[in-house]
Design brief:
single chain; alpha+beta; four-stranded mixed beta sheet; 13 strands
């Protein structure tokens, strides 16, 4: 986020692709990698919350006592990662055998039946050929349209995903790759179709299958809608386009990838079929996807002056008879009946928005874990500003006599309104300007601790999916959708 007009001179946030990410290059129609565990525990009164109509409780991961699928991978070792991959592919084949004809009228469903496994740590003499390329030190998983095969690195990639995000994140990766095979069978795209369309379709198809798993339809897996689905979304965020100005971007931003997965989860395979260049452009609207001149150099520092500037922009969007009193000496202490939440809180009893500015500023700097391979941590000042914005919006809701308590109502409504405001910040006339990457920073924070999706007492739903879905609703559909969805 930067000032509109004259830009403040502050250091640009450092961001770059790690070596492991660079190795996740495509083969054939699709590529998918994984990410690092970033999903933090959040305050909630319940163990799980309903997500888009699916409220599965209990474990998340491979079902116990279920025989392994009778599939084998060329060059496989029969170990845990290969069994996990093959069981996933077997369930995917069963699912799409039933689902394919309901959505697609071109081609007949043919399950992927050729698989290759390799170890990226193995010496060069043990390399194999996958998709006309050797696999020496290749950390990857991919669908190859040349010979309709799926391949994966069992030595580095899949264990890394499993360790950092859980085994269901491995399922997500392979569901994405299988989605590329569905594209191929259904002849959805032409030779000139942008890679971004291909990747978001595959993300969407993965979301369709994950919903099937969460609803209990998978033979080998279960998925709960709290920590299990949170881990899946973390992996989705990790393989994102990290440099908005890179002309070779193909996966989409974290916000776009999460959106594609949620489209499949909520609306089914037909939503994926309808993803094309026009649909993506409509969804992007005027949201910034590349940096404008000065954006990187002109990022706002998180300090008193910048927070006052943001509050001024919010005041123009939501004129209040009594705007919240801004206190930059710390959070509101001893607020009657309401608990103060670090690093920013709103006290409805006296209309004060208290902020611990140094603590809030830490959210804008380098975050723990952002230097790990395939990290889902997204640095940026909007991870801080979105929390301040959300507390200001509690004052707006109070002025409209809306309840400020309840994680699943006030908390999600606040996240949604924060998304709507984020879109308004992209308008040319806004006093502060949304820049490329800001939505990703907000997504990362919402997934990690969800403070911008908390109610006045700091209570947050346990489902990162719900938090991100509320924010996305605000960004794409605006304030009206927030008020009708989260009552």
């Amino acid at each position: 986020m930067r000032r509109n007009g004259r830009r403040a001179a502050v250091p640009a946030v450092l961001a770059g692709l790690l070596t492991l990410v660079l190795l996740l290059a495509g083969c054939g129609d699709g590529v998918e990698g994984a990410a690092s565990q970033q999903t933090a525990a959040v305050a909630a009164d319940n163990d799980s919350w309903p997500v888009a109509g699916s409220a599965q409780n209990g474990p998340s991961g491979p079902r116990s006592g279920v025989p392994d699928a009778p599939l084998r991978a060329d060059n496989g070792d029969g170990g845990e990662m290969d069994r996990l991959a093959l069981n996933t592919i077997a369930d995917l084949g069963d699912f799409w055998k039933t689902e394919y004809g309901k959505v697609f009228d071109k081609g007949a469903f043919v399950p992927v039946d050729h698989f290759l496994s390799w170890d990226a740590k193995a010496p060069k003499e043990q390399q194999i050929t996958f998709c006309r390329s050797n696999t020496y030190h290749v950390v990857n998983a991919a669908y190859c349209s040349v010979d309709q095969t799926i391949g994966w690195d069992r030595g580095v990639l899949l264990p890394l995903i499993s360790q950092k995000y859980g085994k269901m994140a491995v399922v997500m990766v392979l569901a994405h790759e299988y989605g590329h095979s569905i594209q191929h069978l259904a002849r959805l795209n032409g030779f000139l179709t942008p890679g971004l369309v291909l990747e978001q379709q595959a993300d969407c198809f993965a979301g369709v299958f994950l919903r099937h798993v969460a609803d209990g339809g998978s033979t080998h897996f279960t998925l709960n809608t709290t920590d299990g689905l949170n881990g899946v979304l973390g992996a989705t965020v990790a393989v994102r386009d990290q440099d908005p100005n890179n002309p070779h971007n193909v996966h989409g931003s974290a916000f776009e990838r999460v959106t594609a997965v949620q489209m499949g989860w909520q609306d089914g395979a037909m939503a994926c079929k309808n993803i094309n260049r026009k649909e993506i452009q409509k969804r992007r609207g005027e949201l910034p996807v590349t940096y404008k001149p000065g954006d990187e150099e002109g990022q706002l520092a998180v300090d008193n002056d910048s927070l006052t500037l943001v509050a001024g922009a919010l005041g123009k969007l939501y004129p209040l008879p009594q705007p919240p009193r801004l206190d930059y000496t710390g959070i509101v202490r001893n607020c009657p009946q309401d608990g103060g939440v670090e690093p920013a809180s709103y006290c409805p009893a006296n209309g004060t928005l208290g902020t611990d500015v140094p603590e809030l500023a830490k959210r804008a700097g380098q975050q723990a874990g952002d230097d790990q391979p395939l990290s889902a941590v997204v640095d940026g000042n909007y991870n801080a500003f979105i929390v301040f914005v959300s507390r200001y919006l509690l004052a707006v809701q109070q002025s409209r006599q809306l309840s400020l308590t309840g994680a699943e109502t006030a908390g999600l409504r606040t996240a949604c309104l924060s998304g709507a405001v984020s879109t308004k910040f992209s308008d040319p006339g806004s006093g502060v300007q949304l820049t490329a990457g800001d939505l990703d920073a907000a997504v990362s924070g919402l997934l990690a601790d969800g403070l911008a999706a908390s109610d006045v007492d700091g209570k947050v739903v346990a489902s990162g999916f719900q938090r991100l879905d509320a924010f996305r609703t605000g960004v794409l559909d605006g304030e009206g959708a927030c008020l009708t969805t989260y009552k």
